């Protein structure tokens, strides 16, 4: 079977490609890796916020301990990190971060996203990035449940971020 020309392949997968532009100006280039595009930086920030929210929701000790420094390095603010660790709704300065929180909260609390929130997310991030975020929430919920079930700890002297039930 002959290979499709690159232009045809691009057209076929274009709906799956992520076109994100939701990095707040204050984050631009601050933690961007040398080989990382602004779009990839935005997706990394969004994913780390989603992961940290998930670790907080599930009170997954190891997931939090692993991802808290990564989220901080990716540009998630100290205030947001502290609020999430305490199980509080953060006072977000950036609307894109607030939207990621709303998506996660709705997915976990109701197992659904209402039409208005869906429209807001698509308008802000684009459909491919929303699909990616839902995947991040789902995957890291699985990780959190697994870590909790088997009581996985990091094996450090660092105090646990969440009270044990």
TrEMBL record:
Superkingdom to which the source organism belongs: Bacteria
SUPFAM superfamilies, sorted: AhpD-like
Alphabetical list of InterPro entries matching this protein: AhpD-like
Xref: Gene3D superfamilies: AhpD-like (1.20.1290.10)
Annotated protein name in UniProt: Carboxymuconolactone decarboxylase family protein
């Amino acid at each position: 079977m002959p290979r499709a020309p690159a232009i045809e392949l691009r057209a076929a997968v274009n709906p799956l490609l992520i076109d994100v532009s939701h990095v707040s100006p204050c984050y631009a280039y601050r933690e961007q890796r040398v080989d990382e595009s602004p779009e990839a930086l935005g997706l990394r920030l969004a994913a780390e916020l989603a992961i940290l929210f998930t670790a907080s929701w599930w009170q997954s000790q190891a997931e939090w301990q692993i991802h808290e420094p990564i989220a901080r390095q990716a540009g998630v603010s100290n205030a947001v990190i502290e609020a999430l660790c305490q199980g509080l709704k953060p006072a977000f300065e950036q609307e894109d971060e607030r939207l990621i929180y709303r998506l996660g909260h709705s997915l976990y609390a109701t197992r659904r996203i209402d039409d208005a929130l869906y429209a807001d997310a698509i308008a802000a991030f684009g459909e491919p990035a929303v699909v990616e975020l839902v995947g991040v929430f789902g995957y890291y919920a699985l990780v959190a449940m697994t870590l909790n079930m088997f009581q996985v700890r990091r094996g450090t002297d660092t105090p646990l971020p969440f009270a044990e039930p």
